[in-house]
Design a protein that fits this description.
mainly beta
Length: 183
């Protein structure tokens, strides 16, 4: 009888956990608005396009853990010689976010750490640097049908690295769209 009660209790417990752990997978696309003027001098005042994905897993109630990765490749010209230069930024990160629904919209606010891979290629030489930084996240999404959702986000990231004889913040505001599915 004890074994039967233990099996019933475990079944109820684990079925509740399965419902609590919602999983959301998203594709993201947007722009990075760098906070450093040096980016504008070299890569123009154009916005830097970034593409990536994010997975969120419900932990407890409205609290979620998230993992994300993005990719950006931008071309520009060196300030003095006007020779072509290429910039690649690959941020990956993880953190927590708090979701709160308001009528048909689902808002969130979050924080986390990002690891940045910075690569720059030009005739003067190649630079490969890494930096650890932080990120703050705000966003909203709306379910379209079933688990399919669309949304908008604005993030701010900060990470200092030294690609030459000076330090720069390779972060800034990230603004974009999200398309995902909640399982």
């Amino acid at each position: 009888m004890k074994k039967l009660l233990a099996i019933i209790a475990a079944t109820i417990f684990f079925s509740g956990l399965a419902n609590a752990f919602n999983i959301t997978a998203e594709l993201k696309g947007g722009i990075l608005l760098p906070s450093e003027r040096a980016f504008g001098d070299i890569y123009g005042d154009e916005m830097i396009m970034m593409y990536g994905g994010e997975i969120s897993i419900g932990i407890f109630g409205p609290l979620e853990a998230w993992l994300e990765g993005s990719y950006s490749l931008q071309k520009g010209k060196l300030s003095l010689t006007q020779e072509e230069t290429k910039l690649k930024i690959i941020p990956t990160g993880a953190g927590l976010k708090f979701r709160f629904p308001v009528e048909e919209l689902d808002f969130y606010v979050g924080v986390g750490l990002n690891y940045y891979r910075y690569e720059e290629y030009n005739p003067l030489g190649n630079v490969k640097e890494n930096a650890l930084g932080y990120i703050g996240k705000l966003g909203v999404s709306k379910k379209i049908t079933g688990g399919l959702l669309i949304g908008f986000y604005i993030d701010y990231s900060y990470a200092k690295l030294k690609p030459a004889d000076f330090r720069v913040n390779i972060g800034g505001f990230h603004v974009g769209w999200r398309l995902g599915y909640e399982f």
